[in-house]
Structures are given as structure tokens and as C-alpha cells.
Amino acid sequence: MTISFTRTARTLDRLTGDVLESVSMLCLVALFVLLLINVISRSFQLWSFAWLDEVVQGLFAWMVFTGTAALWRHNEHFRVDWLELALPGRARHYLRFLTVFLSLVFLFFMTWKGWDLTMRSRALTPILDLPTAYFYAAIPLAGGLMMAYSLRDLLLEWQSLFSYSTKDEHSDAL
After folding, report:
1. Which residues span the domain enclosing 63?
2. Single pTM value for the model
């Protein structure tokens, strides 16, 4: 049963990662194409796209938040790790645990406030009449996924703190 659960969790994780990366890339490609067409049409005074700003805002929001969640999944987001690398073994694990915990606290508030913003949003975009909640929904969705990945990382760091032996401390000192 544990093997089946682990296999299902890995499959779900891989599927989630593929969806996040695909949505982020599709938004980037769509932004590039729409902005290129807009620049060309303005340069040659061909036509105007009054709705373009609304679509760009939505695509940008979804690109940023799904891309961030995809990077968070693999711990590939930008971070300064000089202190982590300078610390010896056990202290390094404590710092990682603290960092993941503080990230989890931040993500909780981001997701909570993002959910609140999405639920309270009643505005429509001026031209396309799209609910702005569609744009804001990227915040709690990505925040919830990043919290799940942070919980995974927190548990892994917790395990590494207690499985870290004195033998490992001696090998770090060498």
C-alpha cells in the first residue's frame, strides 16, 4: 500500500509539475506573440487592440505565479546560499529548516490574502468584461501548491536533522 501511495504521489507530482511548466510557457509564448503583434501594428499604424492590456495582465499574472510554483517544486528559485554553504553540517540543516519554515509562514499569508482578494473581487475588465478574479486566482493556486512543496521540504529537513549522525559532523569538519 505504501508503494502504491508513493507511486501515485510521484505521478501526481510529475503531472502537477508538467501542468505548471506548460501553463507558464504557454503564457510566455502568448505574451511574446501578442506584444510583437501590438508593436508591429503600432509601428505601421495598422490597427489597435484595445483589449490587449487586459489579456497581457492576466497572462503575466498566470505566467509569474505558475512559473514560481514550478521553480519552487524543484527548489530552483533564486536564493542566496553563501551562509548555508559556509555553515558546518548540523547548523546547515537548522538553517534550511528555519528558512523553509519561514517560507511556509509567508506562503500561508500570501495564499490567505490571495484567496481573500480573489473572493472579494467583483470588478470586470473594462473591454472584455472578464472577472478580475480570474487573474487573481493564480495567487492562491500557486501559493497552495508552494505550501504543499514547502511542507514536503520541511518534513525532509526535519528528518535530516534527526538522522544526522556525529559521523556526518566529523566528515564535514574534514
Report:
1. 2-173
2. 0.85
